[in-house]
Amino acid sequence: MKFKNPSTPFPSVGYFGPEYFCDRKVETETLIKNIEGGLSTTLVAIRRIGKTGLIKHVQYLLHDKYICIYADILPTETGIDFLNTLASAILNSVPEKTGLGQKIWSFIKSLRPVITFDKLSGEPNVSFNIQPKETTHQIENLFEFLEQQDRRVIFAVDEFQQILDYPEKSMEAWLRTTIQQLQNVIFIYSGSQPHLMNEMFANPSNPFFRSTVLLPLEKINFESYQAYIIQKFKDSKKEIESQVAAEMLDWTTGHTYFVQLLCNRVFIGSKRVVTTEVWQNEALKLLKEQEIIFLGYRDNLTREQWKLLKAIAQAGKAYSITSKSFIREYALGSSATIIRSVNSLEKKSFIYMQYDAEGNRFYSVYDVLFQRWIQNL
Ligand SMILES: Nc1ncnc2c1ncn2[C@@H]1O[C@H](COP(=O)(O)OP(=O)(O)O)[C@@H](O)[C@H]1O
Ligand SMILES: [Mg+2]
Fold it and tell me: What is the rounded distance in angstroms from the CA atom of residue 100 to the CA atom of residue 377?
């Protein structure tokens, strides 16, 4: 398995191999242990923290020993879409020229789907022309085929909460029952909506309850990200003091995608030495680029929602948002109004709720750039 080099040492999309992957040692080890013990794992975290990256990393490390399949079901809306995505993922898991690849191709073809090729990536896309009621039967065919392989299978299903939106309401229960019987296939589920994922996997009344090991993904450890950033600049003969790297991590709140994005711009925009002035300049440019989008966001919020969002942005981590002191500090309305606003802001993904290490709830703005832009107003 070979990777193209990313255009800078700080890619903000895709996985480029272990060399461009920071830390996640404990999580990687846990996932591998689970897989070796035959346990499926569920990764839960807000968007852009590095769930997909971690899945790709683990699959890369294990690709000699396992058949590694990766399916992102975010774009799917029905059971048939789900089937098509799984089948395409199976087809893309192994190069066609290998013995196993040929076996997979002839198996998928035997199910008589239409196979087209993506114009940009050249990857095959499988689509079945079937009645909705035949979907489960076809998915069973896929799993049965994977069961028969000599090598074990790691099947990653990314953005798994999407199945809750399918019109086929019994999909979750059916899938659970079917998957439970598999012995040769280990799953990694991943999802970006913690409340939905927790509901699916941690609520006793739901089919997937306790069927997997839950692995919440936190931000990457500050010191190890700091060391990584310094090293990556150094590898390209650029200098950055640890204090400056720390400032960049603070500004991006250590949220992986935003750290990568800022480092990427700073890498391109800097000469030999990266100073505070250099990164701040790049950060301001990032905010300027997004301004029109942020203004649009603001126009779509009610006055109350906007006021609360501003308060949360100012606080960074906003605790006890209905408390007297929070209301006074940010001149907000009644706690009933706050509760209404917080619900709609969360639903629209402007903010997210999380528990800290002590088990206290706080709210933060989802998009770090939006947060910084609001703070600069
Ligand atoms: N451990 C890591 N080291 C460096 N960059 C990472 C790491 N994990 C993720 N990234 C980068 O951050 C971006 C967002 O991560 P991603 O895995 O897509 O998040 P998620 O799946 O949680 O939404 C990725 O495109 C990748 O470039
Ligand atoms: Mg992802």
Answer: 58
Using alpha carbons, select from 266, 240, 262, 264 the residue that is nearest to residue 252: 262
- Quick: pLDDT tens for 318-357: 999 999 999 999 999 999 999 999 999 999 999 999 988 8
SS3 track for 145-179: HHHCCCCCEEEEEECHHHHHHCCCCCHHHHHHHHH
pTM, 2 dp: 0.95
Residues 6+ apart with CB under 8 A from 69: 89, 90, 93, 153, 154, 155, 156
Looking from the CA of residue 190, the nearest atom of ligand 1 is 21
Taking the C-alpha atoms of 129, 134, 139 and 141 in order, what is their torsion angle to the nearest 10 degrees? -100
φ/ψ (deg, to 5) at 144: -60, -40
Residue 186's identity, in one-letter code, is I
Which residues form ligand 1's pocket by a CB distance below 6 Å? Answer: 11-14, 21-22, 24, 45, 47-53, 192, 220, 256-257, 260
Query: Residue holding tokens 């709830």?
Result: 361
Q: For 26-74, how does the pLDDT look when each residue is reduced to its tens digit (9 = 90+)?
A: 999 999 999 999 999 999 999 999 999 999 999 999 999 999 999 999 9
